[in-house]
Amino acid sequence: MSDLVSENLNMVFTSPKGETVHAIQNLNFVLKKGELLTVLGPSGCGKTTLLNITAGFLRPTSGKITLGGKEINGPGLERGMVFQQGALFEWLTVADNVNFGLRMKKEDPKKIAEKVEEWLEIVGLQGFGNTPTYQLSGGMQQRIALARCLINDPDLILMDEPLGALDALTREKMQSLVLKIWKETGKTIVLITHSVEEALLLGQKLYVMAPRPGRLHKEYQLPFAKMGLSTDLRQIKNEKEFVKKREEILTMIWNMEEEIMGKDI
Amino acid sequence: MLTGLFIILLIIILIATIVYGKRLIKVEKIDAVFGNPERSKGGYHWIIAGSCSILLLWFYFSWDVARSFFPNSANELCQVAKVRDSLVSIKYVFPIEQKTLKSSDFIKRENRNIELLNNQIKQSSIANKDKDKLIFLLVETQSLIKILSDEKYLNPEIKNKVLGVANQIDSLSKNIQNKNYPQFDSLSSEEKIAIKKQGFWGETGAEVPFYPNTKFGLKFDAASKELNKIVEQFFLIKNNSEVFEKKSKELDSVIENYRDTLAESQEVETQFAREVSKIYGRVTRSNIFPANVLDPVEQSVVRFEEVQKKEQGSLKIIDTLLFPGGTVVASGQTCSEQGSGRWLPKPTDTLKEFLHLLDPNQGYKNVPLFWYEMMGINKVVDFILPDWIADLVPGKYPVHNNEGKVISNFKSNVLDIVTGNFELFSIPVPSGHIWDSFLRVFLGLTLGILCGVPLGLFMGLSRFAAGYFDPLIELYRPVPPLAWAPLIITVFGIDNSGKIFLLFIVSFAIMVISARAGASGTQLSKIHAAHSLGASHWQILKEVIFPNSLPEILTGIRVAIGVCWGTLVAAEFLAGTTGIGFVENVARKYMQYEVIWITIFVMGLLGLLFDIGMRKIINKTIPWRGKG
Ligand SMILES: Nc1ncnc2c1ncn2[C@@H]1O[C@H](COP(=O)(O)OP(=O)(O)O)[C@@H](O)[C@H]1O
Ligand SMILES: [Mg+2]
Q1: Does B626 contact A at CB distance below 8 Å?
Q2: Quick check: is A20 in a domain?
Q3: CB A188 within 8 A of CB A239
Q4: A211 upstream amide cis, omega within 30 of 0
Q5: pTM above 0.80, yes or no
Q6: B355 at the A interface (CB within 8 A)?
Q7: Number of domains in chain B
Q8: Which of A52, A57, A152 sits opposite B533 (nearest CB)?
Q9: Quick check: bond before B182 cis, omega within 30?
Q10: Residue A15: phi, psi to the nearest 5?
Q11: Within the 85-124 window of chain A, which residues sit less than 8 Å (CB to CB) from chain B?
Q12: What residues make up the domain containing B307?
């Protein structure tokens, strides 16, 4: 019973000028163990804030998030995070990046080496252990970030636009990798994205958020992630159902953006 | 000889590299457009060309080229300079190098003085009787000038004497054009001995040898001796006609009488009388002549100058071409280099002096530049271990027993060790001026890094530390390091500790600021990542924040080395007994230009080595910089 539960979550920022921003307003949801949730929304609707609170980097203004019944108040090993980019330690080799968490726990070096080998193989980077990370491409770097997070065996994986900076081809491969890992490990995953296609493809559950104040706008249950485990992703993208959903959400987001613009003017 | 060959070699290399470079440029045009940074790469032959040029310029402007190809030229120029020196006083009388005739100049000046004094007397508030008297005296004095300027009163002998001098100069002009001049033995026996004893140009003790070494030089030396005699005669000619003698004697007594009549209370009158008397004195001593009387001498001097210039022949060309920025000058009993040859030491001499300084038995002020000395290991231990270690050992120091003996115990043994009170073996320890300077920089810098980096990191991570220590650091950091020197020397003394402390405070501020910038510049996502990977605070500091600040810290160290090095040399200039700055300061006092240039060179080279070393370290330790 290690569900992720948000109860009346509120986050209000005060900018240095004194303006208040209601980044998250009265957010309530329940995410069951093993579910894959994607979060979509125009920029500034509080996606990153939600993730940061879940990871424990921020304290909510009011309300709370619990994981397995325990309130989150600080970073913890049971919640792993994958950042958009730039969060690798560029002074370390690939292996040292991947085993960072294990070294911090001072595990047996032999066991560490074994685990690193195992995970490098899963993310398709076997043989790169001694390479400095800065010599690798963006896609490879995100694989390392994934492996570094997963090697700690967290209950919940949080990803903030992990594939945002990748080119289309690499991106598709990484999407398959995420699905594969989800299937093989059965982890609970929250993945934030600004790509509608990605949200539809990967999300077993999809939340569309609206800005100002940041809130849950619409919620979907989707079949495509399950399909993606066995079918080619490109094929799914061409399915009638998929196209229909994509157009619906795109229109929704367009309307939201227009509303914001109108408000500003 | 060797120098000459080396110079020729340099020229050949320079030309070769330029030719090679030019050829290469033709090829490069195909693959590089202007502005392409690739075009500035790989110009090693130009490095050689640049080095050769600098060396050649050094050889040239220090007159080493002249010395190696024409070793006698300075000695010969010295003899020429003697001639010039002999003529200086006589030329000064005439408008040859001066603009006006000396007599005219004098008359113009004194006439103005008389007029000024005249006006002052007229406007003063003294009694009319005194005014009249003083003005009368002034007019009389002026009439003396008239007598001296008027050919009517000229003693007829004088014209003959003047002609006599002119003739002597003219005949000398004729004689020196003779190949066999001097036909007489112009050298005294002492001079002959001195010629044998004097060294070559640049040999220690004789910058430029004074006595003539060559036949050419002998000619000018002899001419200058003859000239000296003629000039002496010329200045014996005095314009003292009977009329002048009589008048001046009269006036003298009148002035003196008048001055005697003045009472002590008549201050203004006394002052005026003194002024009049001064003008009178200057006029009687002036030895001015009517305008055209001395013309024959002037003309003969001009003719002689032309002849002697012609006689210099190729030496004149050598002087202009190979003695740039100055020449050899004679004054009294010495000849010396004046100009760039003086303050720019010759490369050959500099190298010799450098080898001399490197010789550990010579060194500078009894301290070698860079050497080692054997030091007992006990002294090293004494230096490293502080004495209070012994106090920490439990127990008491032994006291003497009733047999009058002191039996040592463990505590006293420890004391013996930490105070270096034992004999073992010796190890070589570096020493010398350069090492001393290096050690000071090293210790000051190390202390600065050890204290500055932790504080800087702390300030980058904590609001308390950033605020609390900020005023201290920001207030003392902008103070120029040397401004601290007087205080620090007073407190710590002129020896090592003062300088090390000075360097410590210099490097401390730099290290604090760079470590702080490094720590506060850590990307938040990296800190977040470390947190969610389960790192403790200490682990985050050690594994994330410190490596992330390393580029800033190393750059800080690089800057600090440069600043410390500059500060140290200046501090050694102020006080101390060893160190490279000390050497330069002493050399400055004794005008040892070779040593000054050597210290400058050593400083530049060491600074360069430090920087290259730091760059190597930076490239080795943080190849990932800026690639996160
Ligand atoms: N630390 C902060 N201080 C003030 N305002 C913030 C801060 N973090 C985020 N915000 C504001 O909160 C809103 C939501 O931000 P964020 O969660 O980053 O949006 P996104 O959905 O694009 O990830 C934005 O309007 C942003 O300006
Ligand atoms: Mg965001």
Answers
A1: no
A2: yes
A3: no
A4: no
A5: no
A6: no
A7: 4
A8: A152
A9: yes
A10: -75, 160
A11: 86-91, 100-101, 104-105
A12: 67-344
CB A172 within 8 A of CB A63: no
Pairwise CA distance, residues B56 & B50, whole Å: 10
Q: What is the pLDDT of residues B121-165, one digit of tens each?
A: 999 888 898 899 999 999 999 999 999 998 888 888 899 999 999
Least CB–CB distance from B529: residue in A76, A81, A134: A81
Choose which residue among A20, A48, A58 to substitute to test ligand 1 binding: the one with the highest number of ligand atoms within 8 A of its C-beta.
A48
- What is the spatial distance between Cα A157 and Cα B624, in angstroms, rounded to a whole number? 28
Residue written as tokens 């001395």? B294
Q: Tell how far CA B78 is from the center of its chain.
A: 24
Q: Which of B19, B35, B61 is the last residue of a domain?
A: B61
B358 CA → ligand 1 middle, Å: 68
3-state secondary structure of B240: coil
Nearest to A55 among B532, B536, B623 (CB): B532
B222-261 pLDDT tens trace: 999 999 999 999 999 998 888 899 999 999 999 999 989 8
Half-sphere exposure of A154 (CA within 13 A, CB side): 26
- The interface predicted TM-score (ipTM) is 0.92
Same-domain check for residues B79 and B141 = yes
Q: Is residue B358 part of a domain?
A: no
Locate B257 and state its tokens.
Answer: 């009488």
Q: Residues A238, A120: one domain? A: no
Specify the amino acid at residue B78.
C
| Structural domain includes residue B628 | no
A215-221, strands of its sheet edge to edge: A79-82, A156-160, A188-192, A36-40, A205-210, A215-221
> How many CA atoms does the CB half-sphere of B54 hold within 13 Å?
5
Cα B47 from Cα B50, distance rounded (Å): 5
Atom of ligand 1 nearest to the CA of A41: 21
The long-range contacts involving B305-312, CB below 8 angstroms and separated by at least 24 positions, are B305/B87, B305/B96, B307/B173, B307/B176, B307/B177, B308/B80, B308/B83, B308/B173, B308/B176, B308/B220, B308/B223, B311/B176, B311/B177, B311/B219, B311/B220, B312/B80
